[in-house]
Amino acid sequence: MKVDHLSPSRIGVYLQCPERYWYKYESGKTVSSEYDYAGNSTIGVAVHKVLDEFNKDNKGKFVKDIEPVDIDYRITRFRAIWKDLGAHNPELAPSGEELIKNYFTNYKKYLPSDAQILDSEFMFEFYLENGIPIKGIIDVIYKVGKSLLVIDYKTGRYAPSQEEIADDIQLSLYDLAMKEKYPRAESIDLAIYNLVHGLVKTSRTDSDRVRVLSFLESLYATIESDKTHTAKLNNLCSWCDYKKDCKAYNEILETDSKSLVSMKYISSDPSKLIAYLSDLRVKSKILEEHQEQAQALLLEVFKAGNMDNFEAPSLGRAKVVQNQITNYNVSDIVFFILGRGNPKFKEVLDKLRKNNISVENELDGVLKTKKSEIDKLIEVFPNLGNSVRKITGFGNAYIKISTSKALPPATTKKLGKGKQ
Which residues contact 105 (CB under 8 A, 6 or more apart)? Predict the structure, then answer.
């Protein structure tokens, strides 16, 4: 495939699925109106535009000096922008409005007071040694003393972990762009600001930059030589604009893609629809059982090799994860409410059970209740969470697989201007 430049979005699409990359950037195929609808994606675009307006309005100001925000006005701007983008589902509007409200209510909690807005929606371009341009847009750049803080806004519900952003390709590209434009900056902090969950920061070392540059040149060569653009099935296939034309996706469903989209061939006959749904559930159950078996085998391989993670180039990173489970001592809960030695202890305990606040007896006789149940009581007794003993344990281990971001071994390559 011909590659005239790379960008965070292009890299993300190719790593996710080469065939989707081909459809999106090489085929010239226009997405049909059947998929090109104004929904959650345009909410994100509208929210970004509102934040860009705000940042441009306050460019050059320190965070501490920015006047209180008229949130109602910013929400009004969101509605207008979203409408201009072709939004037609009013039921989705509140989610965007809530994101706007969350940001302007909390942003000063996450940003240094001496951070100064340097630029917003900054378009960058730098070149690899082979002359390939790397392009992108940074949401907002702050100057903090002699350092920089580069932020990428996210409007989804998923909050990336510290480990994930430490290996995030998009942030790595932002770092390279800032390193070239502001070579005298003492440091460059990179952050994901999720408008639901808040801000998480990371940074890159010179060694990281060398590895990223090697990765970019390697990826460019891979895309250029890719003549088959083979589909890679993933968790986002159901939301892909090109799933109607994807052979791999439709082979999984074992049904004609046009029939899948319209459902007209079964919607007029309830009995056929019931049979179709029942068949899907059976297949789903079979696949779920195979998934559990495959996971158990992989856990055994990891255990035998004394490993907790493994990176398979072009496939992904598999990591053993074990969730910690927290419970609370129910006796402490009751004592907190009544006071120790109160004769009504048993009465209150019975009342907890009757009100569907689950209580269970451990073998050692310790009463405990799950954290989710405690949360119900904390609403009534705000200090309760700090007044009871926690009983911690671990759930079953499982395998988490993330999109591959494997970088080739470090080389001596440096960031260069290349061809202009």
Answer: 71
The pair of three-digit structure tokens given for residue 76, joined into one six-digit string? 């009004």
Which pairing describes strands 198-203 and 188-194: parallel, antiparallel, or unpaired? Answer: antiparallel
List, for residues 225-279, the tens digit of each pLDDT value: 999 999 988 878 878 888 888 888 887 766 544 444 455 555 567 777 777 777 7
What are the beta bridge partners of residue 119? 141
What is the rounded CA–CA span in Å between residue 182 and residue 188?
9
> The tokens 């809530």 sit on which residue?
98
Give bridge partners of residue 137 from the DSSP assignment.
Answer: 123
Tell me the pLDDT tens digit for each residue of 201-219.
999 999 999 999 999 999 9
Is 252 within 8 Å of 240 (Cβ atoms)?
A: no
| Amino acid of residue 76 | T
CA distance 407 to 411: 11
What are the helix and strand counts (H, E) for the chain? 15, 12
Angstrom CA distances, 380 to 273, 375, 385, 391, stand at 47, 9, 11, 22
Give the whole-angstrom CA distance, residue 106 versus residue 196. 10
Residue with tokens 């019975």: 350
Which sign, positive or negative, has the C-alpha torsion 297, 302, 308, 310?
Answer: negative
First to last CA, the chain: 22
Task: Name the one residue in this structure whose structure tokens are 């509208």.
Answer: 46
Residue type, 365: G
Short-list 139, 136, 151, 141, CA closest to 202:
151
**How many other CB atoms sit within 10 Å of the CB of residue 186?**
10
